[in-house]
């Protein structure tokens, strides 16, 4: 399954209500947010769950419950679960939730998985055998080279390879700029590959970074996980506000494959 042109990442692992009151933390809030974001133009949801105290949660059973709820409320929306460690989980924990949650789409940071390098190749093989689509999170070109070293050549060169290029950083508060994408684009050209790639961008220039990525042929991940700001620097009201602004600025068929509608229909708003 290919990535949708716009995926929304509404909460991430760290943001709290104190950062923005519209950050969805409970399953009901996340599901309601997904419905609204889908209606605004997001074809996919990057799913982070939280525990009762609002902390980042990797739990296979909780993900199964969330995936069932989202399927019932928003059956036309692609749902991708995170495996982010966020300083709480080991690669073993990450592998377990990826393989036992019932998710068909996951995101995995290659630098996190390679903290246990011996187990990493087998994990990627098991995902491929189970038909789990892995979006590989790359924070820099060094990560990209690490990915090349761990994947079989046939998967690395496949147009179905899914990549997410991360611009800027939450941990060191480095705000993204559109030109941060250029090293990744240079790497793609040097490798001669054409994967299914997207970008996300931390900070106030999120919108301009994503527009730059779209012009370069990429797809977009937008939402409060990366930025709570509109293009003009004002604070967005909600995640659907971020999706709606980006959708209005993108070309009509940005990131769209011939057999992929811009945003599938079918989410229930009740």
Shape: globular
Query: What is the chain-wise order of helices and strands?
Result: EHEEEHEHEHHEHHEHEHEH
Rg, nearest Å: 17 Å
- Into which percentage range does the β-strand content fall? 15-25%
User: In the CATH hierarchy, what is the class?
Assistant: Alpha Beta
Uncertain ranges = 257-270
Q: CATH H level: which superfamily?
A: Aldolase class I
Helical coverage, percent range: 25-40%
Question: How many domains is the backbone divided into?
Answer: 1
- In round numbers, the mean pLDDT is 93
Give the strand line-up of the largest sheet.
Answer: 1-2-5-6-7-8-9-10
Write a structural description:
With 270 residues, this protein is an alpha/beta fold. It has one domain: TIM Barrel (Alpha-Beta Barrel), CATH 3.20.20. The chain is built from ten helices and ten strands. A hairpin with a 5-residue loop joins β3 (49-50) and β4 (56-57). α1 packs across α2 (60-73). The longest helix is centred in the first third of the chain and has 14 residues, at 27-40. The two termini are 28 Å apart. Mean pLDDT is 93; it is low at 257-270.
């Amino acid at each position: 399954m290919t990535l949708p042109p716009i995926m929304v990442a509404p909460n991430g692992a760290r943001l709290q209500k104190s950062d923005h009151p519209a950050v969805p933390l409970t399953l009901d809030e996340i599901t309601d947010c997904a419905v609204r974001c889908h209606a605004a133009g997001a074809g996919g949801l990057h799913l982070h769950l939280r525990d009762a105290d609002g902390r980042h949660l990797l739990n296979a059973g909780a993900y199964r419950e969330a995936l069932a709820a989202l399927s019932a409320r928003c059956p036309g929306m692609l749902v991708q679960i995170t495996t982010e460690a966020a300083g709480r989980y080991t690669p073993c924990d990450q592998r377990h939730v990826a393989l036992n949650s019932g998710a068909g789409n996951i995101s995995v940071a290659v630098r996190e998985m390679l903290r246990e390098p011996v187990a990493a190749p087998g994990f990627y093989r098991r995902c491929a055998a189970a038909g789990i689509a892995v979006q590989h999170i790359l924070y820099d070109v060094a990560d990209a080279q690490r990915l090349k070293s761990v994947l079989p050549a046939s998967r690395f060169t496949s147009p179905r390879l899914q990549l997410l290029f991360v611009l800027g950083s939450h941990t060191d508060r480095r705000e993204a700029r559109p030109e941060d994408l250029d090293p990744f684009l240079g790497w793609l050209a040097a490798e001669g590959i054409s994967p299914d790639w997207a970008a996300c961008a931390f900070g106030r220039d999120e919108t301009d970074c994503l527009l730059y990525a779209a012009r370069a042929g990429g797809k977009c991940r937008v939402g409060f996980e990366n930025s709570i700001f509109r293009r003009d620097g004002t604070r967005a009201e909600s995640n659907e506000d971020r999706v709606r602004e980006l959708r209005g600025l993108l070309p009509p068929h940005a990131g769209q494959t011939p057999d992929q509608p811009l945003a599938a229909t079918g989410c229930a708003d009740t």
